[in-house]
Amino acid sequence: MAQDQQIVKISREWTELTNAPASEIVFLVQGGAAYIAYTASAAAPTAEIGALYASKKGERDLISALTPLAGANRVWAKSAANETTAIFVDHA
Asked: Which architecture characterizes domain 4-91 according to CATH?
């Protein structure tokens, strides 16, 4: 299974953390706070907010275990404040 590790910089717009459909993800907010949301397509979430993660918080799990959205395979983030935030991402 292909794997991708990167640091993704996010701002106040939804930014995709997965660059392709993924089944597993590890992410850790490096600073500030971030909203995390899930979709079943490459279209950005329409909601203004998602699950809130504080600095140094994250997840390590199957995407299907993190959201009730059927078929979710994309993970998105945006800053919870008016600042750029970095998120470590590892997905497969």
From this structure: Sandwich (2.60)
